[in-house]
């Protein structure tokens, strides 16, 4: 007998009720039969009490003394735990595991730190357990002779810190300091921020909030967190210092740099945490992290009790997560007067930050820069990429030694530019006796080992007496402020960057290549004067700079879809969204669109309250659309496949299409093509990658098939972590075998469960489609594998360029849309037009089919 639930005659609301009831907190706790696999009875396991009884029967006659000793030890630990729990700021860390059956936070990666198992004592600073399963006083591993052990907390001075830094032992690990440490220390002390260390400490010690403005090259990102470590001593409080970054690349590279400066191993005293990658340990006292990761931690620890100081770096970038975090920290600060918050910015728009943070004190430190000569083009450039490459090569051919920094907009553009520069540079060496030129890309999804290459020295002259070599770094706007690269003398600025743009009226969010602001242009130019006088080549006119560029970039909160942010705020317990204290409140229409979308996804009920499904969705570091699709996948018997697809949609493009081999790349792509669209094609690539042939030599296989090894390995890692969250939240993985006739149909239906608001219908006999409800005319992106034209398509991305494209598409059926999302596809909510007419025809067709079935009975 088929136990699958009947999904054909039930709408989305009924299905959601089934999901919500499974994951509600009031789960069955009496040991009865639990429902598994969405309606199938799970195996009934014997109760723990029965097993314990059997074990006790078999162990009669064992040593009673051991049992009594164990009881005494447990009693002592419980008493000591009770004492620790009396501290209001440590109480949460010493709560016992939950008594109630259901979602166990010990298995949740965001809560695991509260329930860590005891670690074995492996000597100084390696296994510092106090028997409670939590780190003991982290000073235990430090020699009693350490000057840091005698520091008065929040009363230290620069002279005291300098004495501790001068060794001979590491003040944090207790190990002898290396010669490399002392070499780096000399360089650090020449940074401008060190001249005002005492002034910073006075302000930090006497205020809960502090606004710190440090120009490029001042050393704020690497030095201020270390200043805080010496004064705050989080290890004594069993806490950490957090320093947030808006970009993953910055969090990783800065953490590595600071670990080197502190003479510790990355992941020990200094670590980093970005989405799907946590390089920290019990030893960690300084954690660099993306602002989004700290926001996720706040969902499970509203008071951020793990942290004694939180530093928001690059606050001027005004990302969505940064703005949300600033509003949240203002509320947390009221509940936690012991928490210190430092806001760091590279621009002088400090007054706004000061007034926002209750008239916080301001400390400004000048950068260490040299004069920079600015050059403009006499006429606008028609092709900024081509002009950029030409300028780089001219600099290499005619300018004195010094490295080059070129700003471009995205990964594909950067990689293509790097390839062309290398080819031209090789030609110049052969024909014009130019020096060697090493080219490095830099963008957010680049692996850490490749990111570090940008700090390598320039290549030497290729022959004795020859012209010296130089390096050229081709970067996104991450190199504006987030990273400082010594040796840059020439900056090439085309004046563009990719920016997120959202139109709430047509519900379209897209990355657009847009002109930068004047503030960004000034930051870019400043990169040329780090080590000596430099030059900045702006590939736009001086008139355009003065009249066309806006003063500062608009904050992301004013130009983004806020669905994820609203879901996060709801999980944080913030229901009054209108009065939540954002520095720049978004337009009411944008907020209403976000609430409406979450309601359609069944993450919020009609009153705007978080549903059980919404609570589950907020546990995933994903867009709500992807989270709901993943959570719903067991309904459609394709959990493993949707898990893989979600991971693939969370990483950069899988397919590689170099300009020199486009035809061959397209041929390879066609080998994986699925007739129903791009999502299933991506899945075919992933399955092939996990097969024995590819795993025998993954690098070669990816090269031969024109797919990105980096993207697939990243997807593998993301998939593993998403699977762990599903298991933690007790979402069962249910999939039919590949041979099942509905294998691919199930996956397409599951895609509808998340992407039903991103659907387009074909217009007559033309190649144009129209988006459902928003009525935007679009065409298929050239990268699609779809060979046959379909009347209805689901799309992953709306791309705005010279034309409106939909990218990563899959064919769907209109009856699926009305079955899975009946509220959204309620025909009475559609205006007159082809979409409504098509949906009405679908309803009539389904009714005739049902009537025919009824007649046969």
If classified by CATH, what would the architecture of the largest domain be? Answer: 3-Layer(aba) Sandwich
Uncertain runs are: 1-67, 80-145
Question: How is the main sheet built?
Answer: 8 strands, mixed
Report mean pLDDT, rounded to a whole number: 83
Overall strand count: 23
Question: Might you state the CATH topology name of the largest domain?
Answer: Rossmann fold
- Termini Cα gap: 21 Å
Structural class of the helices, strands and pairings? alpha/beta
Instruction: Say which CATH homologous superfamily of the largest domain is assigned.
Output: P-loop containing nucleotide triphosphate hydrolases
Give me the number of helical elements.
Answer: 30
Query: Beta-sheet strand percentage?
Result: 5-15%
The portion of residues assigned to helices is: 25-40%
Strand order, largest beta sheet: 6-5-7-4-8-9-3-10
Number of domains: 5
- CATH class of the largest domain reads Alpha Beta
Overall geometry comes to globular
The whole-angstrom Rg is: 29 Å
Protein name: RNA helicase
Family: Belongs to the DEAD box helicase family. DEAH subfamily. DDX15/PRP43 sub-subfamily.
Pfam families: DEAD, HA2_C, Helicase_C, OB_NTP_bind, WHD_HA2
Keywords: ATP-binding, Helicase, Hydrolase, mRNA processing, mRNA splicing, Nucleotide-binding, Nucleus
């Amino acid at each position: 007998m088929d136990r699958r639930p009947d999904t054909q005659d039930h709408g989305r609301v009924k299905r959601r009720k089934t999901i919500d009831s499974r994951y509600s907190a009031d789960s069955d706790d009496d040991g009865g039969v639990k429902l598994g696999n969405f309606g199938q009875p799970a195996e009934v396991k014997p109760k723990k009490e029965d097993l314990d009884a059997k074990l006790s029967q078999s162990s009669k006659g064992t040593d009673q003394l051991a049992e009594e000793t164990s009881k005494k030890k447990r009693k002592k630990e419980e008493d000591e735990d009770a004492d620790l729990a009396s501290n209001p700021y440590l109480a949460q860390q010493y709560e016992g595991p939950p008594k109630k059956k259901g979602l166990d936070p010990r298995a949740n990666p965001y809560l695991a730190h509260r329930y860590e198992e005891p670690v074995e004592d492996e000597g100084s600073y390696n296994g510092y357990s106090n028997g409670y399963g939590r780190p003991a006083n982290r000073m235990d591993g430090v020699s009693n002779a350490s000057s840091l052990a005698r520091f008065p907390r929040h009363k230290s001075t620069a002279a005291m810190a300098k004495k501790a830094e001068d060794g001979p032992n590491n003040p944090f690990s207790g190990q002898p300091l290396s010669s490399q440490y002392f070499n780096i220390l000399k360089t650090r002390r020449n940074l401008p921020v060190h001249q005002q260390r005492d002034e910073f400490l006075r302000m930090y010690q006497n205020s809960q909030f502090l606004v710190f403005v440090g120009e490029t090259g001042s050393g704020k990102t690497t030095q201020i967190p270390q200043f805080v470590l010496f004064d705050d001593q989080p290890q004594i409080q069993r806490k950490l210092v957090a320093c947030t970054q808006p970009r993953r690349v910055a969090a990783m590279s800065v953490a590595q740099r600071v670990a080197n400066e502190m003479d510790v191993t990355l992941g020990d005293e200094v670590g980093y945490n970005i989405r799907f990658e946590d390089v920290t340990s019990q030893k960690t006292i300084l954690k660099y992290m993306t602002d989004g990761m700290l926001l996720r931690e706040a969902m499970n620890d509203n008071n951020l009790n793990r942290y004694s100081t939180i530093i928001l770096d690059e606050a001027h970038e005004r990302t969505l997560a940064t703005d949300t975090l600033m509003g949240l920290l203002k509320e947390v600060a009221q509940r936690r007067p012991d928490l210190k918050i430092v806001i760091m910015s590279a621009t002088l728009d400090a007054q706004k930050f000061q007034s926002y943070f209750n008239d916080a004190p301001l400390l400004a430190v000048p950068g260490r820069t040299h004069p920079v000569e600015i050059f403009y083009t006499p006429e606008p450039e028609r092709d900024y990429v081509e002009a950029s490459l030409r300028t780089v090569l001219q600099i290499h051919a005619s300018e004195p030694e010094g490295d080059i920094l070129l700003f471009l907009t995205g990964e594909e553009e950067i990689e293509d530019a790097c390839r062309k520069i290398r080819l031209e540079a090789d030609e110049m060496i052969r024909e014009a006796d130019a020096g060697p030129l090493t080219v490095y890309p830099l963008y957010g999804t680049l692996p850490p080992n490749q990111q570090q290459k940008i700090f390598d020295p320039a290549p030497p002259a290729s022959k004795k007496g020859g012209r010296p070599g130089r390096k050229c770094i081709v970067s996104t706007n991450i190199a504006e402020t987030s990273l400082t690269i010594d040796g840059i003398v020439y900056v090439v600025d085309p004046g563009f960057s990719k920016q997120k743009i959202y139109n709430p009226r047509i519900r379209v969010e897209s990355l657009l290549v847009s002109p930068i602001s004047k503030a960004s242009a000034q930051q870019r130019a400043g990169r040329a004067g780090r080590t000596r006088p430099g030059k900045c080549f702006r590939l736009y006119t001086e008139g355009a700079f003065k009249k066309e560029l806006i003063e500062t970039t608009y904050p992301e909160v004013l130009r983004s879809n806020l669905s994820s942010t609203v879901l996060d705020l709801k999980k944080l317990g913030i229901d009054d969204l209108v009065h939540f204290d954002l520095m720049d409140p978004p337009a009411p229409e944008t907020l209403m669109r976000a609430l409406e979308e979450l309601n359609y996804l069944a993450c919020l009920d009609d009153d705007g309250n978080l549903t059980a499904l919404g609570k589950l969705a907020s546990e995933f570091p994903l867009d709500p659309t992807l989270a709901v699709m993943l959570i719903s996948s067991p309904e459609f018997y394709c959990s493993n496949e949707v898990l893989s697809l979600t991971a693939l949609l969370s990483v950069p493009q899988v397919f590689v299409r170099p300009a020199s081999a486009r035809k061959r790349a397209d041929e390879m792509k066609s080998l994986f093509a699925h007739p129903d669209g791009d999502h299933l094609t991506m899945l075919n690539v992933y399955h092939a990658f996990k097969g024995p042939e590819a795993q025998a030599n993954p690098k070669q296989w990816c090269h031969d098939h024109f797919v990105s090894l980096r993207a697939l390995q990243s997807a593998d890692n993301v998939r593993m972590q998403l699977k762990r969250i599903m298991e933690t939240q007790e979402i069962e993985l249910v999939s039919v075998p590949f041979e099942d006739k509905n294998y691919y149909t199930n996956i397409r239906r599951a895609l509808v469960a998340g992407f039903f608001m991103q659907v387009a219908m074909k217009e007559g006999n033309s190649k144009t489609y129209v988006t459902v409800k928003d009525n935007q005319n679009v065409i298929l992106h050239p990268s699609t594998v779809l060979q046959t034209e379909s009347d209805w398509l689901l799309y992953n991305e709306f791309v705005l360029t010279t034309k409106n494209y939909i990218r990563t598409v899959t064919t769907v059926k209109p009856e699926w849309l009305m079955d899975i999302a009946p509220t959204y596809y309620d025909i009475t909510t559609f205006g007159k037009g082809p979409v409504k007419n098509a949906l009405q025809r679908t309803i009539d067709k389904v009714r005739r089919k049902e009537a025919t079935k009824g007649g046969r009975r």
